[in-house]
Amino acid sequence: MYHAIVFLPLLGFLIAGIFGRMIGPRPSEIVTTSFVATSAVLSWVALFSVGYGDGETTVRIANWMVSGDLAVDWALRIDALTVVMLVVVNSVSALVHLYSMGYMHEDPSRSRFFAYLSLFTFAMLMLVTSDNLVQMFFGWEGVGLASYLLIGFWYQKESANAAAMKAFVVNRVGDFGFALGIFLVFYLFGSTSFDVIFPQVEAFATGAAGEGFSFLGLDAQGTLTLACLLLFMGAMGKSAQFLLHTWLPDAMEGPTPVSALIHAATMVTAGVFLVARMSPLFEFAPTALVVVTGIGALTAFFAATVGLVQNDIKRVIAYSTCSQLGYMFVAMGLGAYSVGMFHLFTHAFFKALLFLGAGSVIHAMHHEQDMRNMGGLGKVIPLTAVMMVIGTIALTGFPFTAGYYSKDAIIEAAYASGAGMSDVAFIATVLAALFTSFYSWRLFFMTFAGKARWGAGHGHAAQADAAHGQTTHGQTTHGQTTPGDDHGHHHDHKPHESPPVMLIPLVLLAIGALVAGYFFKSVFVGDGYEAFWGDALYTRPDNTILHDLHYVPAWVVWSPFVMMVIGFALAYWMYVRDTAVPARIAQEQPMLYRFLLNKWYFDELYDIIFVRPAKWLGRFLWRTGDGKIIDGMGPDGISARVLDTTSWVVRLQTGYVYHYAFTMLVGVAALVTWYLIAGAR
What we know:
The chain is mainly alpha-helical.
């Protein structure tokens, strides 16, 4: 069964990728979608077999490589953590495949698109089923490659190519840290296999096995902390955490199904999964956990503030994803690993729902992504509007929806924990809950409520700017000057509801967004924790966060709900009742507005610090180093001297006989003179 779960998407990729042009787009869609759907069904079977039974196992596939002390097997580690990720990855991927059959139905390169989707799914499955760090790194780089291909799928667009390259380069920074972390772990424990590493950690960290150990001046505890920080550096890049987050919003240049697959439930959650998988290491590196908590809290707050003023419907959801990933890392840093995984699990449903719902809106609006050019769509595409409401209430933590159970548990854990940065994390997550509610309902009201700002007679950008206090400052090609999600729809400009093949995935995700939290809360944060997770997650005996979070004061429990209500009320007031308020605030606070609209100026800052110096260095090495020095003194210089010499020699070759006779006479005269002089001596 596990072989089928992992390798069916690979088979679909090979069929669609190699034979796609021969069999055509429709068979490619059917093959890839059916294979991934089969994997999804089997993943749910595995969830109940392993999580609620005793099906935990390791499936050995092959001996991968042996080099000195390094021995790496190709194996599938099947435990509770794995099957949770299998359900998330395959369920969302299957629905995205199905949704794409409608969304991409006019794109001429559908076979290639579905091949990329299946390749991405396989790489992600390799990552989550890995039995060792080397195999995990293989899957890690595989999803990086597939995301590059998917983000840049419309390679005719310069902005798509730039976004794909940006995602690839930024992730290389994190991956470099991840690779160093793997090297250091191998150096410390002599293996990359989890079964070999984990039993040694406690003895090494407490000094029993690491006594007298020194690495770069660090003792055993310090070295373990360094290893965890390097691993977390990889997680920061893949999960778009603060400082390495800049690639995520630009990745919206890819088709909307790509946004749902990559940014909702799969690649961006790989970093969270990594910390959870390596919990035996992080539990003995408290300093690293403090860093994880701090970065997560800062990301949750930062991304939520930026989402307040964005105009591109997909970018708002992208920053929301970035913020929610911050929540997950807060939980991981507090040692509440199952709580972080709970939010990862529920977030997959409602965020995929929001992304695909946004795709339905873009489909209805004929590739328009600017919310300032929408409005009044609730009456035109009512089912999509209902789906977006469900996704929004789940994201904002409306009682008894999926987000209510998981996000609130993180806030309560932040208050209950006495670990470093927990107070900062509590304040940041509560404020982020307020901002999340505001920008989520702002998105809904600007898109579905009010008067229509589309169609004939509506001055799109100008009217929207006046109504919502927005400017195009900082908004370049993301749905403003070029079509953002142009997937071939060029009909009349009247919005229309999406076809059933796109709506069915929305309905299924909406069910998960409503009930997933309630049905799974026990095994993630309740009494069923130990029976479900077993040894998949490790917590030290003094880690009582799962117990403590249930006994926080009532005002802590109510705080996210109050923030949700305040955010809703503010959004309703500013975008339904009095639409002149946003413009007035933007005019009164222009510096703050531009600061948020330009994403805290991180792109501009990185351009000054990294991009321009790198370009200058490259230009210097190209023109001076390569052109003037290497070529000038090397092949170009030698050839130039040869040309200079021969240019004088060829003048002697005139073709006239008397010139040659005169030269011979000069030569004879010179020879006779030499003999006379030599003879006189």
